[in-house]
């Protein structure tokens, strides 16, 4: 029986993944992570790992908490799995925030449009 209500998980997924703002943001972060992952195949420079700064910057300020946690637990030598997982988690958290803002702004614009046409 469908009561017209969506589950909280579905709403959360829709806000995080299924809107233009979130999709564009996740594509940007995913692209930066793909480039950073492929960088060792194309260069042997000693500073090639610095390419991972870009995905981390794209996920600030949420990644700031991950960096702080890694520093406090591992003292600056956080494992790669923790940092990459932190980038992914930070991107999803910020994508949820973008999706929520997108829905709020669209709802506000639609309500305002209905009010002006009703007048």
Please tell me about this protein's structure.
This protein has 119 residues and is an all-alpha fold. It has one domain. 76% of the residues lie in helices and 0% in strands. The protein is built from 5 helices and no strands. It starts with 7 loop residues before the first helix and ends with a helix. Pfam families: DUF7942.
Briefly, what is this?
It contains five helices and no strands. By secondary structure, the chain is mostly helical. It is elongated.
Give the arrangement of secondary structure elements:
Elements: H1 8-17, H2 20-42, H3 53-58, H4 62-74, H5 80-118
3D shape: elongated
SSE string? HHHHH
β-strand percent reads under 5%
If helices are DSSP runs of H or I spanning 4 or more residues, what is the number of helices?
Answer: 5
Count of strand segments: 0
Structural class: mainly alpha
For the sheet with most strands, the description reads:
none
Which properties best describe this structure?
single chain, membrane, 5 helices, 119 residues, mainly alpha, DUF7942, transmembrane helix, transmembrane, elongated
């Amino acid at each position: 029986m469908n009561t017209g209500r969506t589950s909280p998980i579905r709403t959360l997924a829709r806000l995080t993944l299924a809107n233009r703002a979130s999709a564009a943001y996740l594509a940007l972060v995913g692209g930066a992570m793909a480039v950073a992952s492929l960088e060792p195949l194309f260069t042997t420079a000693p500073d090639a790992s610095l390419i991972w700064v870009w995905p981390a910057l794209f996920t600030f300020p949420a990644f700031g908490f991950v960096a702080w946690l890694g520093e406090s637990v591992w003292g600056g030598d956080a494992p790669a799995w923790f940092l990459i997982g932190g980038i992914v988690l930070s991107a999803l958290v910020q994508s949820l925030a973008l999706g929520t803002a997108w829905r709020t702004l669209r709802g506000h614009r639609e309500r305002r449009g209905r009010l002006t046409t009703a007048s």
